[in-house]
Amino acid sequence: MLKKRKLNIIGTPVPKHDGKIRVSGQAVYGHDINLTGMLYGAILRTEHPSAIIEKIDISEALKLEGVECIITADDIDVNNISYKRDHPILKKGEVNCIRDEIAAVAATSKEVAQNAIKLIRVEYKIRKGIYDPIEALEESSPQINKFISGKYKNKNTAEVFKYSHGNIEEEKKKSIVNVSRRFTLPRVTHACMGTSNITAHFDKLSGKLVLYSSTQVPFLYQRDMAHALKMNPSDIRIIQPVIGGGFGSKLDMYPFEPICALLSIKTGKPVQIIYSRQEEFIASPTRQPMIIDIACGADKDGNFTYRDIKIIKDNGAYTSWGATTPFVIMQAFSSLYQVKACKFEATAVYTNNVFAGSFRGYGNPQATFALERIIDLLADKLKISKAEIRLKNANYKNEITGQGLHYETCGHIECLEKVISESNFYNKKNTENGRFRKGIGLASMLHVGGGAKIYRSDGCGTTLKIDPYGYCTIITGSNEIGQGSETVLAMIASEELGIELSKIKVINTDTDIKPWDVGVHASRTSFVAGNSLLGAINILKDKLNNKAKQLLNTENSDFIYQNGMIAIENANEALALDKVVREMHFSEPSELAIASYFYEPLSQFQNKEFKGNVSGTYAFASQAIEVKVDTYTGNIEITNVHTAQDVGKVLNPLLLDGQIHGGILQGIGYAISEEMIYEEGKLLNPNFHNYKLLTASDVPNIHFYPIETNDKQGPYGAKGVGEAPLIPTAAAIANAVCDALDIEVLELPLTPERVLKAINFKK
Amino acid sequence: MQKTEVSKKIKISFELNNRKINMDVKPSSLLLDILRDELGMKGTKPGCNEGECGACTVLINGNAINSCLYLAVNANGKEITTIEGLVKNDGTLDHVQKAIIDNGAVQCGFCTSGMIMSIKSIENYYLSQNNNVKNKKKPNKEEIKKWLEGNLCRCTGYIKIIDAAEKVLINEE
Amino acid sequence: MNFNIEIPASKNELIELLSEYKNKKYRIGAGCTDLIMELRKKPEDDLTVINISQINDEDFNNIKLSNNKIVIGANTNVVKICTNNEVVTNFPTLKEAAQNLASNQIRQVATIGGNICTASPSGDLICALMALKANLEIIDFAGNKRSVSILEFYKGVRITDLKKSEFLSSIEIDLNKVNPKNMYSGFIKIGTRKSMECSVVSLAYHIQLNENYKVISAGLAFGASAPTVIFAYDACDFLINKNITELKNNEIDEFANHILKYASPIDDLRATAWYRKQVLFNISKSILEEFSKTN
């Protein structure tokens, strides 16, 4: 007899569905692909960040045995790439940043390809580059990118985002305290453990191109690739091997990808390009460096009155999706904590630096850093507690913010209260005077939790089938990039259909097979793909229920699915699921146990003023971070991280912890150790030796408190979780360091040297 | 024509995952390249080629080394274990591999092979220390973190990996 | 990266090879962790690597106690240095330096001889061995031996006293004059992270006291703040015969200045000269402050 029960699988710590192949060396990453007759590609990049290319001589390289093809801009008929189409695949006439691609080789071995690259002679006329976005905005500066539409008056402006709500002048009058600062945020990079890679295989007979690519957005990528190569998108098939880390780095298509395709098209053979680690540092995307000017006020009761923000973003030489991060940034300023008036302007400026892309958090860590630092300064001026000022202004359930974000659920207050009490915030007053000083800092964050409607569709398709043996296959548009989406989808199917996890397969790597999805970003996959799967399950269950009704000769269709059986609650008779499927297939009228569903979140496009409810739901988090600073060396030890996050509903605590821990460590790196150091546009630390990812021995205690607000939009009430954990971390750390040392922090990362300088400056 | 120096190849023999291998290698060949490109052991990952990330970690006579900085000629006469060598013939995973899955310690998985080999090396070290000793020594959490310092991971924040190592090295008998 | 290789199986074969290569281009490689990185960046034509890692020689590959000395074979890997009982008990500064060198994987193959001969200005083992006033035994192509103090071994940035056709055979350290409990020895390594750092500043100290906390012997050396690792003679002299528990603040500052005056750091990617000096001064103070705190 089957009985209805509460959730059985959802909410339990199910280990990774695809875990075994990943712990046994069997997972095939792009680096592991070896196709018959495959050639190896290599790319010649510029030696100078800003120069005229006077001559390219490939004659010596062509003579090298094993070289099959060399291409330069003159050899290819292509369109520019990037969403603004301002980025030539191979550069002609000039180079504008140190990652610029000049030529590419396909050869029979990696060594030959590398040797050929060294034999290509390029003559440059070196120009003075512009590496400071403020300088780039000056009238006298030359135009850096020649492909822009001329939409803006300033020749080096790539994008401008303006937003406002409320009456800022009125609010200024009401303010009794005002604080303004300029914050400078560094360039950091994803540093995925697996470097960028692609294998392209063009079949001359059919004219079709297969790309083994680690993109996070296969369907947008297919379209971008087709535009670049002047092909039909459907003639391009994207197959995603296992991805060695994403974090936003694979949201855009970059030149090396169409270059590899072109080498395959020219040679008719498969071609593979794998970045070296140095190349990964130089030529994969980065987080936006920003200069944030912010002015804020509060009234006598500590209510936030206004925020006035001007941001200059260093776009680099070309545009990527990263230029659109103000969509997210302005949300933090307009809608994190209640604020009556907000004026926001962000300008992305072309420079001769490498171009910035999207990176987990999508501009939000920068924005949150500035905002949460200012809140501490306001509290200091008002002489009220840093916890009280936040609680007073925190967001609340059913709030509709000035920007039109509608918080149907909101765990902001609970998050704050939780970390304040768990960290014993009020009693952690820094009174020590010795070499080591302790401090504690608070910060919150707001992020989209149900996708973000910035593309025409923010949806995801699912096809679901059950075979005559009772096994289930989920064909989903979404991708697994390590975050665990396969596991969560398998759990949902298992929960709803009563099929054990080992009988559930997830197919998600091939654009020729899977239905459309906008891609992995915006913390959307569990939410959007989960809802899509639930939609498909409902359709399939209707079919199964009908058959079961017929077989059981009943009018009741309130079936329970458990342990591979279908039955009416408490009924004596139960049917095996596989038998119901077989009856569907093999008795008249024959029908497959298959269903398709496309889920589009209820979110809206924002209007021209960027107002509207852009996400299906919103995630909140607060962190209280404790630090111990060595005043002799400037080293910061993170001792405890308390983090509470409104996740809607915990779907899988094991995988959720993984997202939280990983995000926080990335956030700590952003706060204290990671920085790409450039001199005149050249990267000085393109290696793990000097680009300092934190190690296992740097890991602090992380105390995580999930807050469940059960959003009715989310699958089982869940919200997106992936990006949130790193967003407030740098802000909370900076606040803690200021608490410990009573110094001013205006830039990141807080390297030992910066901290020691600040201590000395105070003296 | 570009002159390509062809150095004389050197004969070496070693045991790879309990299988005897005889092969000729270039003097400058690195173990990582031999394993991946010539012996098909692609579970060992190329992460940085500079001894900083540990993705290419394999065991030489039970000790973890970076195969990207290890001359292939020095494998001569040694026992090498790669991630593939931990799975038994019947498909049973090693308890470290199992602990990594059960503790949610794998996300993208690119660092995982190296991480597992490093945990194996800790286990091997304590096995050798505890040979015929009554009060068996065990590492503490801080020691485990220190042992894993040479394996970078960008996904997990290490905590679950350290948990998995603790399960195997401290809690299991 | 492309090179030929010679793989001697014994010290004698190594000596023979050095004789054979007297007028040819070669590099000696032990663990080869630094050498491979260097040759990848700057490949050399017609190079032979004399790979000494397969030399099967008990003395060359291990640590031994003999005649009030500890003798460490140059081919001893760093793991053995961290775990050897004699080192752990008698020379904490060396143990700590070894333990914080790169990663476990590197320590398995990197050797003490390699660290000494690479002659990095930030070489951690060099720094500790200087504080211990170690002696180096060097053998040439004819088998002749000579001994040189590590304090005299470094001649400039990555330049050593080791001549062509010579190799470093062993490192000798005198045992302490005092009982280990009267010894104050350690190694401070400063970097951004807790692991995997190349020292931004390092300081090795090895101080022996009599029963009344009077300093009877002191060794102090610092790294990464001058063209070579530096032994701070005056700071050592300053401490001799002083009671380490009774130092006043101004004396502690004076001591730190006696170290700092040897520093001539540069600005580089990892830190500015300003930072290195500040920190060297501070951590120099800290060793005396810490002592008073813990005793």
Which structural category fits the helices and strands of chain A? alpha+beta
Output the strand order for the largest sheet of chain A: 3-5-1-12-9-10-11
Task: State the CATH topology of the largest domain in chain A.
Answer: Aldehyde Oxidoreductase, domain 4
The average pLDDT value of chain C, as a whole number, equals 96
Distance N to C terminus of chain C: 53 Å
Protein structure class of chain C: alpha+beta
Q: List unreliable stretches of 5+ residues of chain C.
A: none
By CATH, the superfamily of the largest domain in chain C comes out as CO dehydrogenase flavoprotein, C-terminal domain
| Beta-strand content estimate of chain A | 15-25%
Report the end-to-end length of chain A measured between terminal Cα atoms: 77 Å
* Biggest sheet character of chain A: 7 strands, mixed
Number of domain units of chain A: 3
Q: What do we call the CATH homologous superfamily of the largest domain in chain A?
A: Aldehyde oxidase/xanthine dehydrogenase, molybdopterin binding domain
Radius of gyration of chain A equals: 27 Å
Instruction: Determine and state the CATH class of the largest domain in chain A.
Output: Alpha Beta
Please characterize this protein's 3D structure.
The complex is a heterotrimer of chains A (763), B (173) and C (295). Chain A has 763 residues and is an alpha+beta fold. Chain A is built from 18 helices and 28 strands. In chain A, the strands form seven sheets. In chain A, strands 3-5-1-12-9-10-11 form a seven-stranded mixed sheet, sandwiched between helices. In chain A, helix 10 packs parallel to helix 17. The longest helix of chain A is centred in the last third of the chain and has 28 residues. Chain B is of the alpha+beta class. Chain B folds into two domains: 76 residues, Beta-grasp domain (Ubiquitin-like (UB roll)), CATH 3.10.20; 77 residues, Orthogonal Bundle (DNA polymerase, domain 1). The termini of chain B are far apart. Helices cover 34% and strands 25% of the residues of chain C. Chain C contains eleven helices and 14 strands. In chain C, strand 13 and strand 14 form a beta hairpin.
